[in-house]
Amino acid sequence: MPRVIDHEERRSEVLAATWQVVATEGLEAATIRRIAIEVGCTAGLVTHHFASKDDILVAALRQVHIAAAKRMASHLSSGSQLKTLHAVLLEVLPLDDERRLEWRVWIAFWGQSLGKTALAQELHNRYAEWRNLINGLLRAAQRSQEIPPQLDVRLWTDLTISLIDGLGLQAVLEPEYFNTSRLKKVVASHMGKILQDYQLIESS
Prior knowledge:
mainly alpha
C-alpha cells in the first residue's frame, strides 16, 4: 500500500528542496520545474501546494526565520540576560552545516528583495523581530543591573545586528578564515565591550 503524504509534509519537502536549489544554484534557478525535480515529483504537485513561485520563495524564507527563532527561543530564560543574548547570537551564526545552509539561502534572498515586495516585507518583518529581541534582552539586562542604565540600548542593538550580518556573510564567503573558533571569539569580544568586562563572558 503506498504511503500517504499529508499536505504539510509535502509542503515541507518542497521548501527543503527550494533551500537546496537556492543555496547551490541561486535564486533564479529556483523555478517550479527545478524544485519539482529536486523533490522528485511533478510541477503540478508543487503548484497544488503553493499558488506560485513567489509563494514558494516567501515560504522558504519564512522557514529560515522560523528555524532560527526556535533555536534562539530555547535559550530564553529568567537567568542572566547577557548570557542569554550571547547564546542567542551564537545560534544565528553559521557554526554548522544546517546554519550554513540557512545563511546561503538568506544571502540569496537579500539581493532579490529590492524588486519583490513580498520578499522585502518578509525581510522587514524578520529584522523587526530581531531588533525587538536584542533590544528586549539588553533592557532586561539593565533592569537586572547587569549593564548600566545609561547604556544606549538602541545603538548597541544596531551594532549587534550589523555585526552578526557581517560575520554571517563573511563566514559563508570565507569559511576557513571565519571558522567556528573565530566567530565565537568575535562575538565574545562584542559582548565584552557591552559589559566593559571581558571576564563576565565565559569562554566556550
